[in-house]
Amino acid sequence: MSILKVDNLVARLRNGAHIVDGISFEIAAGETFALLGESGCGKSMTALSLMRLLPDGVENAGGSVSLQDTALQQLSEREMRAVRGGTMAMIFQEPGLSLNPVMTVGEQIAEVLELHGERRNGKNLPPSQPSPLKEEGVAQRCIELLEQVGIPDAARRVHEYPFQFSGGMKQRVMIAMALAGKPKLLIADEPTTALDVTIQAQVLSLLRDTQQQSGMAMLLITHDLGVVAENAHRVAVMYAGEIVEQASRDELFGRPLHPYTQKLFAALPDETRRDHQLTAIPGSVPPLGSITNGCRFAPRCDRAWERCHEQTPEWTVMAVGQGVRCHLYAADAAGREKKEEGRVEAKLSISSSPFSLPPSLLQVENLKVHFPIRKGIMQRVVGQVKAVDGVSLEIKQGRTLALVGESGCGKTTLGKALLQLIKPTAGSVRFAEQELIGLDAQALRSKRSAMQMVFQDPYASLNPKMRVAEILEEGMTALAIGGNSAARQVHIDDLLDKCGLARSAKWRYPHEFSGGQRQRIAIARALAVSPKLLICDEPTSALDVSVQAQILNLLKSLQQELGLSYLFITHNLAVVDYLAHEVCVMYQGKVVERGTAEQVLGSPKNEYTKTLLAAVPRIHIQQPV
Ligand code: SF4
User: Fold this and answer.
1) Ligand 1 mean position to 59 CA, how many Å?
2) Could you give phi then psi for residue 395, rounded to 5 degrees?
3) What is the Å distance from ligand 1's center to 308 Cα?
């Protein structure tokens, strides 16, 4: 039985551009339906459109949405408020922003019970005065809900505030709030994107269990193919506001049809693609409403021909429940002929013979970074946080060491301690045979050019008031590298070429670039001072899978060309599989396992590494047609 039916839904901007353009799908009771696609494809706008929560400037412009045979568009705003959080609930990507910081989690769950739960029993009750948590039965129900979502010591924690919960626990509270209204449909918008892989596994398993118990339908919005592979029954792939492919999970992963879906799969890093360039999707999702004629994917599709630019592809039904929007699958002969043409992956030559290991560049022995815990008016030291606690590792020239582990395990602190941006408490850091700990500021400055850092967030790490040329020149000037200004300009042009950016980019500001281009600028900035070692702190975790592929390709080719060494800090094990030669697994400030990528990922010895690997969603993709 269908819980949700969406037919030809349209949402548009005031200027007439369609953000969501005629999408249709159904979700049955107990079913998980995934909407997949890059950022800017219209996935979240679809969810907000279903909830009738579109932001200012966007309006619903057609189509129908019915939830258990109730046409949502026909409801008044007052009636719709009773549906939101009741029959239809939503959880968001960032639980920290969705919870009220000045109410306890119990009060927030009680509010939902008050509005939608069993306490209302169909009566039109006034708002609760005083706090509904004090009422008999409500507090008990809140505790039960927190226990149901796996929050330990729920009777105590029901009285705590959101800031006292970790990211994963906050997401559990959000789920408890959603379940309080006994929803028939749960919309989960990137529910685990902000979480570590182990917490992600717990939250997804919790959602699956809840679904099994209650028969709730779920709309799962994500750009993570692994999450889709492990959780969805059926999948729709969205591109530029349209659904371009829809199929069961097994059909889609077994035989992706649309060139966009195939490209998304080919952009995924893993160890089987180690010797190949990842197939990055060139360009980005077109601005909304910019392509009115022809296929919206045509500018990025390497199988496009004239017809694709002239004629908008129709929806072609391939089988029951399976369809695709692409001329290749049109019933006529022109489409069939083109379908036979395949795609080619560029092969990289990798020089990594185990018999000729390169010399060591960085050696770290027993490194410790302890932070004092201070208390009271006198700020007396009452203890220590051991952020990094006796770490030893080695990075060889031209090789990549991946440092993996969950948030808070000390990876970033270790990276900063290697650069001496944080003063280590004890231990040794030898770079190119020279001890860095204890060097004075001037001596350290001369070493800094050889060790550079690339940060996670390309939006926050570039000065918005400086043009790209100034950003790249700043480090060279500070470290007196590159001769005079004219010579530096030549060097900047060369860096832009290397990093796949147009030379004209140097006269533009960071806000004029996409996320992937900004990360290229950040990499160019790091390379400007001719480093030997790059410390990359989660450089792709804020990026879509297709942009991630571009950055990984760039890092790999720069390593081959310039002989760079990388310390790659990440919690994405697929990236590790693809890029790393050696791996260190960190847990609570210590390295719990280290070895070659094949050893650690192929046959882990440590229990924590095994847990980490088991939590990663797996994808099995067959050859596309
Ligand atoms: Fe590519 Fe043409 Fe199909 Fe669009 S219609 S996805 S351009 S082959």
Assistant:
1) 29
2) -120, 130
3) 6
